[in-house]
Fold this protein.
Amino acid sequence: METTISKSANYTVIAVAGRIDTVTAVEFERSVSQAFEDENNALIIDCSGLEYISSSGLRVFLMIQKKMMAKKGQLHICSLRPNIKEIFDISGFSGIFKLFGDLDSATKF
Amino acid sequence: MENTLNVKIMVVDDEVDLEPLVRQRFRRQIRSGEYDFVFAHNGLEALSKLIENPTIGVILSDINMPEMDGLTLLLKLKELKNPSLKTVVVSAYGDMENIRMAMNRGAFDFLTKPINFEDLEITINKTLEEIILQRKALIEHDQLISIQRDLNVAREIQQGILPQTFPPFPNRFDFEIFASMEAAKEVGGDFYDFFMIDNDHLGFVIGDVSGKGIPAAIFMAVSRTLIKATGLKGMPPGECLGYVNNLLCNESISCMFVTVFYAIINLKTGKLSYANAGHNPPYILRQNETIETIPSTGDTILGVFEDQQFETASIQIQPTDSVLLFTDGVTEAFNNQSEAYGESRLEPLLRQLGNKNATEVVKEIVGDVTTFVDGAPQSDDITMLCLKYNG
């Protein structure tokens, strides 16, 4: 699991690649917390490199969403691979998160 | 240096003048509790003092003594095999032969006479530090063992709250039910349950809590209990999950959640009412090698978002059909090549199991998954519940 954080004037993008499982979920949570320290109230998680996510990983997504809601910010998730999209659909997460097909459309807040 | 573990220092020497001298020289350390001395005058006495005072850690021993000398004492101490018992021998200056023999018999360090008390203090401190380090490691080791023991008890308790007796309703011939949960760790976050709501309605449920280990196990126990208590009231599945969701939201810290499939079958008509909170869709195994999934309702997990609505959907079950509930530990069982078992292996197998009874269905799948993973470490709980409707 690897994360790359890039900040622009209006939003922050966290690109996550690899597997988020029970072990790497802790790491993922830690790197995402760093992104919360900045002032941007718009966050994009780019999942184009995400290969696998376990329930521990989904939990971190929920925490991000709750934190963003608490600071009245917005969270966009983009570029889910089909197997990840299926997990989001089955778990009903597709109805909770704002999902976008690509990064470009996700940047429009 | 802090001597929090109260490690005692035993001085073994046949010179009776030594005790008042040591007490005088180290009176400050004795008063502050840093040093606590015990005195013995030969090897034999030293051994009996050791039994009386199990907290003795440092032994300062002379070599030439009546009854039992220092070298023999070292041999006896070696037999105790206590790594946190360290002996410093005190010998005449230049007595290299005895010093070497003492070191070979396991002495930790040596001092020469006449004793230089500054050097003695450094030596005592160094030895005490070593012992305290070892004893702390030993205490932590014991704590780990005790946690492991607790985990094993927790495992028994957890298995105990899931129904374990099969067949559970030996007088009913209109259906069969079988279930199993194999946790990846000592305790798991999956659960299953079933209960008669009235004479014609059977409720059955499967759930998967996010994460693993103790936190998941506690959340699992709460979820399972709430669903059963609510389900027994007989309310429709969607309403039941909505009610339980709100209760869990109050309990849920740090975004733990649970996916749940809960269904009630009318045993007279075969009508299955169900609600699905983010759980993978169960299968219906029909005759003639056909299978179908129970369509998802698109509703989400329990425990995070309050006041969610959960739809109650329904589907018709025919006599001899089986309903298989499972958790993603089945489809996401990985082999050593990091391949997942997946629907692509599960579905062809299920087509072959339409004629089997509930117990056989679960056992055949467990067997196939076990063969597939071929000894690779289990990463998730593997849980299944099969209901066969006989009509």
User: Anything to note?
Assistant: Helices of chain A lie at 22-36, 55-70, 82-90, 103-106.
